[in-house]
Design goal:
Pfam families: RraA-like. Keywords: Magnesium, Metal-binding. Substrate binds at residues 108-111, 130. The chain is α/β, with parallel strands linked by helices. The protein has a domain at 37-196: Ribonuclease E inhibitor RraA/RraA-like (Glucose Oxidase, domain 1, 3-Layer(bba) Sandwich), CATH 3.50.30.40. Helix content is 29%, strand content 25%. The protein is built from seven helices and eleven strands. Strands 1, 2, 3, 4, 5, 6, 7, 10 and 11 form a nine-stranded mixed β-sheet that branches. The protein has a two-stranded antiparallel ribbon with strand order 8-9. A hairpin with a 2-residue loop joins strand 10 (185-189) and strand 11 (192-196). Helix 2 crosses helix 6 (201-223) and helix 6 (201-223) packs antiparallel against helix 7. The protein starts with 11 loop residues before the first helix and ends with a helix.
């Protein structure tokens, strides 16, 4: 479990370059760089936009705006001075960490409406969402562990904004927990969601660009009948 606090905004050009690659390609690059767990955020589902909406690319990419939720009964943890959606900056992806085993949603249709107005790109939730039809109608990107019919305020509340969060805090194996810092880069698609530490972004782009070209050569050989063993030995060196 690693962390490196970063406070400055991530350049848009860097995010645009990252967006050219898939979550799988980026995870492979992060593994090469020995990044913790390849940056993979497990057990997330893409609930919106709807897969039948052919007008939208099903890929989310932006810098993280982090939110830590606590139980509503927690009176000791800090309280933010404004709602986290109002605080989120344009071009960000809101990343929400929830207390383990909460059954309520922490994101609903009204939040999507406000987030879109603010220019937020999407939300990634280690927890639940609700109002699926509203997110899909809006074409807003929502990744979450699951969904619920229960609202947020009775059960949980926002506590800390724009500080490092442990995304999968419920994992018993602490070495597999992932820390997300504000302005780390989040990319999500149909295969899953990955967090890229901001400091590694340029190296990730270099490795992904190289690997994509290698895979193109592999694909040509495989389609022409060459074996995987021979193809990988020549182009991947193994």
């Amino acid at each position: 479990m690693t962390s490196s606090a970063v406070t400055s905004r991530t350049p848009a050009l860097l995010i645009d370059s990252i967006q050219a690659f898939s979550s799988c390609e980026i995870a492979d690059a992060l593994v090469t760089l020995e990044c913790h767990q390849g940056g993979y955020l497990p057990d997330l589902n893409l609930y919106s936009p709807d897969e039948r909406d052919q007008g939208l690319a099903r890929k989310l990419c932006g810098e993280a705006f982090t939110v830590k939720m606590v139980l509503a009964s927690d009176t000791k943890s800090p309280r933010p001075s404004e709602h986290f959606v109002d605080a989120a900056e344009e071009g960000t992806v809101i990343v929400i960490s929830c207390p383990p085993n909460t059954r309520n949603a922490v994101w609903g249709g009204l939040m999507t409406a406000r987030a879109q107005f603010r220019g937020v790109k999407g939300v990634v939730i280690n927890g639940r969402c609700r109002d699926l039809a509203e997110h899909r109608e809006a074409g807003f990107y929502v990744f979450a562990n699951s969904h619920s019919v229960l609202g947020q305020s009775t059960f949980t509340r926002p506590s800390i904004l724009q500080k490092p969060i442990i995304f999968n805090e419920s994992l018993i194996e602490t070495d597999k927990r992932i820390i997300i810092n504000p302005h780390d880069i989040i990319i999500g698609d149909e295969d899953g969601v990955v967090v890229i530490p901001k400091a590694l972004a340029e190296e990730v782009i270099k490795i992904c660009s190289r690997n994509v070209e290698i895979d193109k050569k592999c694909l040509i050989d495989l389609k022409n009948g060459r074996s995987i063993k021979e193809t990988f030995a020549e182009h991947r060196g193994r």
